[in-house]
Amino acid sequence: MTMIVEALDLKKTYMLGKIPVEALRGVNLKVESGDFLAVLGPSGSGKSTLLNLVGALDKPTAGTLLIDGVDVSTLNDNQLSDLRRRVGFVFQFFNLIPRFTAKDNVELSLSIIGVSKAERKKRAEELLETVGLKNRINHKPAELSGGQQQRVAIARALANNPRFLLLDEPTGNIDSKTAREIMKLVKRLNTEKGMTIIMVTHDQHLAREAKRIVQLFDGVITSDVVNGELT
Amino acid sequence: MKTRDVFGYSFSAIKLRKLRAGLTTLGVVIGIAAIVALLSITQGLQNTITMQLETGLATDTLIVSPGRSVFSEGGAGIGGGIGGGESSFSLFINDTATINGLSPDIATSVAVIQRTVYVQSPDRGFLINVKGVDFAQYADIYGSTFVAESGTINLNPANDEIVVGKTLHDPWENGTLLFNVNDGLEIIWTNATARPPENETYTGQITAVLTEIGGFSFGGPSDISVYIPIAQAQSFFGTDECNQIIVKLKSSDQATIDSVSNAITDAFSGEASVISSTAVLNIIGSVFSVIQLFLAGIAAISLLVAGIGIMNIMIVSLIERTREIGILKALGMKSRTVLMIFLGESVIIGLIGAVLGIGLGWVLANVVAVIFSGGGPFAGIGGGQAAGVGAGGMDIIPVLTPTVLVGALGFGIGVSVIFALYPAWRASKLKPVEALRYE
Predict the structure, then answer these.
(1) Do the chains contact at A109 and B329, CB–CB below 8 Å?
(2) What is the ipTM of this complex?
(3) In chain A, which among 162-221 make CB contacts under 8 A with chain B?
(4) Nearest to B204 by CA among B123, B132, B112
(5) Which structural domain range is residue A135 located in?
(6) A112–B333 CB contact, under 8 Å
(7) Are residues A93 and A27 located together in one domain of the fold?
(8) Model pTM?
């Protein structure tokens, strides 16, 4: 198994005005290829901070973080951008570009890495078909339901063949029925395509869908168990 | 990200806020239109004046006047003017012989006695410029302009023969003639050197009216002058001194002009000034360059205002799109691509603004030209030709030179890009985590 994410004594301190806030206080975590990890914790536990670090959106204050074998703390702005191209982000609020259609949104992440127009189109259509949106490819986000928008976001995240998917409360903004469908899709990606998935959530029910559950509390990991062992 | 995709993305952002982008572009349009209109009108005016000067001033002629030239070294200064400075030195009619002997490049030369006189028509009087010249030599030098429209220019005239310019014949250009061939013309000259000053009078007969020449004239024939034989001028004005000697060269190349000019200056120990038409045209050219620079500078201010507008709008756009920039960065877009996207927007605005501005400026220039010309034809690029000074004023044909065209385009885009640099830089420096959190 390849190691996708490896965190050793990971620390992150923010300055909230003049007051330092320790969001992560020594996190140790290993995520292997094919894993489906749920990071569970209440708000303020450091979930989002961990997500930002693992997504190469931010750099740690101390400790080591290897993403796909690369030490994040040594990277410059440009190299961080390159690293992000190996991560598939799915956000709670979808974060689609409103003026673009579903297809254009998926194509966007491909155009950023310089894929040709013809190939972008082909790949975007395939991906939207995979997430079950074949008939809505020319709709703009405003013309799609929350669930559909999240499917577009997942298709976009998958576009540049990421090493892993990073999901931030992926169903936090959609109804429970649609949420179940989205989770079914995510699980299918993990079981059928072997996609490594790291999902951050505060929802215990959602976390139970994962293979492994990590509990984060007050900036440290309080438990790290294979699903089913949690009581 | 490919350049084409960068521009595509920039364009999609502009399209989203059409009105705002349109108004921003309008600022550039106005600035560029002002520059183009002013420059093409001044260029047209310069061309018109140059053309008219060239008509009145053959390029193969030199004008020798008494007094040090303001253009030569050790000149008499600004007070001297084009005709030479104050000096006790006088040119005499027979100095033409001296000049003719100076260089084999000289074809001929003619002396001109020039005075302002008063002429009386049946119902009014006029102050007019009278020139005493040798009709034969003058016609030889100015073969294309010292030509009779009606009557005949007698090359060996009697003393009372008079040739008049077109303006004296038909001043209102409406067929109401003031003086015609065979009319008598009473010339009244006030001899200010006599004590007490007295009016001298003689009546001559008009034998010819010149064809319309148009424009101004340095030494050469003009529409507003009256011509009398040199011998008559000598006796009537009681002088052998002349105001100018016009020298015709065998060639109009610069080397000939320079060598003959130097020879003449040396022959008169620097007391006479020699002006070539090319020198005059060069001076006019440089005067117009200054005027153009000045006008373009004023117009450029409006473009700077447009630039500040662009900066303002880009900053607003940057704030509105903070989250979008966060998304783009999360998807792996590099900071320099974000910079390019914002600069791309300004390039598009600048390009559209400049193209529309050039078009609008060109239309404006033509409208202004038509108004100033009193209803002349709507001109095309490089078309038309300049007409003379008349009741309708001067015909200005606006000229859009390639330099102005390319310059306006470059300036429009340049100003847009420069003012977008700061907002674009700020956008590129946004931290993805903070940008994504932005509401």
Answers:
(1) no
(2) 0.93
(3) none
(4) B132
(5) 87-161
(6) yes
(7) no
(8) 0.72
